[in-house]
Amino acid sequence: DAGVIQSPRHEVTEMGQEVTLRCKPISGHDYLFWYRQTMMRGLELLIYFNNNVPIDDSGMPEDRFSAKMPNASFSTLKIQPSEPRDSAVYFCASSFRSYEAFFGQGTRLTVV
Amino acid sequence: GIQVEQSPPDLILQEGANSTLRCNFSDSVNNLQWFHQNPWGQLINLFYIPSGTKQNGRLSATTVATERYSLLYISSSQTTDSGVYFCAVNRLSNDYKLSFGAGTTVTVRA
Q1: Interval A30-48: pLDDT, tens
Q2: Which of A98, A108, A110 is most worth mutating to test chain B (most B CB atoms within 10 A of its CB)?
Q3: Chain B hits for A34, Cβ within 8 Å
Q4: pLDDT tier at A99 (50, 70, 90 boundaries)?
């Protein structure tokens, strides 16, 4: 398996624009997680899915953020409109039940 | 939520030295993982170790679940060991989200 695949690897956008981050989990994994990493807050969980259903979105910072998982092999995290304070590295991870989680390479987002 | 504390926050080592990183957690856990974040930002899985001891080359880890801590040992450190080491846990409940510690930044000097 190729592991968790995220795209794009880097994204630079202007404030106010819509940003869509994409994730393909490892085949057979039933949990998918979106994390954000910043210097100030470290690694924080934004939302996670089980069998494509959102379970806990309490970490989503505000209504500008939304996430979907239309099928077992694809998820998106959308920010609309984007703001400079959204600049961070966004990671997607997947696991089978509560067992070992594997992370993608991350998307480095810069909002100018 | 569960609290995860890592120590020390920073560690500077001379190449060839040994070191121990510690992770304390505040509740019973279902899963504990150690990750290495390399200078390119990638999170590399080191160990999945909810209990017991495991070894992988120069690295080993021990988790004492009853006492709520885990240790990561680095022996004969190399410059490629530099980076941030994270401990992450999820609680012994139906809660599968991993909570991360703040990490230990390791710098290995040649």
Answers
A1: 999 999 999 999 999 999 9
A2: A98
A3: none
A4: confident
